[in-house]
Amino acid sequence: xxxxxxxxxxxxxxxxxxxxxxxxxxxxxxxxxxxxxxxxxxxxxxxxxxxxxxxxxxxxxxxxxxxxxxxxxxxxxxxxxxxxxxxxxxxxxxxxxxxxxxxxxxxxxxxxxxxxxxxxxxxxxxxxxxxxxxxxxxxxxxxxxxxxxxxxxxxxxxxxxxxxxxxxxxxxxxxxxxxxxxxxxxxxxxxxxxxxxxxxxxxxxxxxxxxxxxxxxxxxxxxxxxxxxxxxxxxxxxxxxxxxxxxxxxxxxxxxxxxxxxxxxxxx
Length: 268
Known about the structure:
alpha+beta; Arc Repressor Mutant, subunit A; Chorismate lyase; 2 domains; disordered C terminus; GntR family transcriptional regulator; transcription; Chorismate_lyase_/UTRA_dom_sf; WH-like_DNA-bd_sf; DNA-binding
C-alpha cells in the first residue's frame, strides 16, 4: 500500500501532510478527531450541542478548514457527530472508541485517551469452579477460584460492570489489591503476571436484576457484553469473565487488511 493511502480513507491530500504534526502514517485529522471525541466523551460538548464552526476549529488546531472537515467526517462515520445544513456539526453520541488490542486493560486504554479510569469492588469471594470456568481456565472441576465484581467508571461516570473469575495461581495477588484499584492488569504486571493473549466474544444482553441495581438502570435495559479469556506467556489461563457496558458509552473498532486478516487483537 502506498504511504499516502490508508484503508477506508482514500488518498491523503498534500494539505493534510502540510499541517503541523502530520505524517503519512498519522494524518493530522486523525489526531483532531481523537481529541474532539475525547472532549465530547468527557462532557466538554454536550449531546445535542453544536460544535464550534469549522473556521474556529481550524484556528484552534492550526490547520486548514479542509483538514478539520475531514476530522469531523471521520467522527460522523463513527456516529459521534452529524452535519445539519444551516446549523453546523451536532453532537449525537458520546461513544468512546476502544481498539481490540487494548481490551485487556480498561484503565490503560482510558489513560491513553486522557480519561480518568476508576471503579469500586462490590464483591469478592472464593468458590469452586463451575464446569464452564474449569474448562476455560484449564482447571479440575471444583477447583478453588476467586470471583470479583467491579463497577468501572470513566471520569467518575459508571460505564461498565466487570465480573471476573481468576485462576488459583493469581488469586492471592488480586485479593491483596485495594477495593478501588484503578487497574488490576497494571497491578498484576507489577507482580510479574503478564497478560499476552486474549480472546473476546461480543454480543448484546438484557440487564439482569443485579446489573440494574449496580448500574442504576432499568431491568432488561440493553447492555453490550464482552466475554473474555486471557492467558500468560506460557499459555497458562489467568482469568475468565465478562464486561457489560452501558449503551452510548463505548464502541469497539476493528482495523483489518489483507496483510492482517486475523482480527482478534485490535473499535465498537
